Amino acid sequence: MRRGGAILLFLLLTGAVFAFLFQYMEKREEARREAEIPAEKILIYTDLPQSAVQAFEGPFFRNSGVKLVVQEMSGTGMVQAARSGQIPDLYVASQKTLMALKEKNLLAPHVSDRTDTVLNSCKDGDGYWTGIWLNPAVFAVNAEFASAHPAFFYTWDEVLSRQSVRLVMTDFIASEYSEESLMALVEHFGEEGTFQRLRDASAHIVQYGKYLSTPAQMAAMDKCDIGISGLDEAKKVQQEGLPVRIIYPEDGTFFYLYGAALARDSSQAERAADFIDWLLDSESQEAQKEQNSYHFIYVNDAGMPVDDAGTKLSFWALEKQYTELGKKELLSRWLQEIRFGKE
Length: 343
Prior knowledge:
- The chain is of the alpha/beta class and about 350 residues long.
- It folds into 2 domains: about 40-130 and about 255-300, Periplasmic binding protein-like II (D-Maltodextrin-Binding Protein, domain 2, 3-Layer(aba) Sandwich), CATH 3.40.190.10; about 135-255 and about 305-340, Periplasmic binding protein-like II (D-Maltodextrin-Binding Protein, domain 2, 3-Layer(aba) Sandwich).
- The chain is about 45% helix and about 20% strand.
- The protein has 14 helices and 11 strands.
- Strands 1, 2, 3, 4, 5, 6, 7, 8, 9, 10 and 11 form an 11-stranded mixed sheet that branches.
- The longest helix is centred in the first third of the chain and has 35 residues, at about 1-35.
- It is globular and about 60 Å long.
- The model has no long low-confidence stretch (mean pLDDT about 90).
């Protein structure tokens, strides 16, 4: 038995060495080819996690021979970099950042047959940026709760007002996503309608999470019945094998949008535009879905996925024309009246 174990260990080690050598030689050969024929590159600034954009580097290089150089920074950092002469070729960022970059006159328009198929609500009317991915708000439901309440109506009114439901949501001041959640609720339900619903919800909220992943995680751990979550965060919790079901709001929902835009004065504008159109191509989307660890929905997805109950995703008609002053006033009112006190 000992001799057999030693032989098995030797074989495993030998296999590992050969695998390492093969990978090393493959990378060395790729570097040699690049040295002989230097690849074109496009520089991308993003406020997404760098890995979310880098996931497309290999496939796009094989498709076009163009390499992606990705730098992660905040929207403010992008503006400062451009003003100091550090101009990228492309921005891949949140809608809020893209709108700010357009306002600062840092973008160049790009319109093509691909961008033309994107819904008007998901792109700039003048062609300065186009949406690529959506992260919609969903209900992350504890599996036992879902099984015990098969007739539950997963509407915003029911979830926010049903006092017997243990609810978790992200603090509205925790991130841009959660901040925009409040703005979307106000645009859809009106200011007074939203604050009445949030007052009702405050009576049965177990916790205001500091992170976007908190509501889905707490639902999976049976620390709440329903968590209001982004689809991306809920999917990640579900794929960890935890008992949570993803249910779309029956009366529609809002989404956080990420998109792309050409930088003004880009030195590789044509290649950067090719990358935008490649991202919007449905075949490219499907090829990357399983490889990308971010579970966003593509704006050009031919078939929107259904939830765990078979419900289709539907969105509210929102314009998202939120001013910084308006945001500040709404957040201040929420903090004073609901989060930390009553009227």
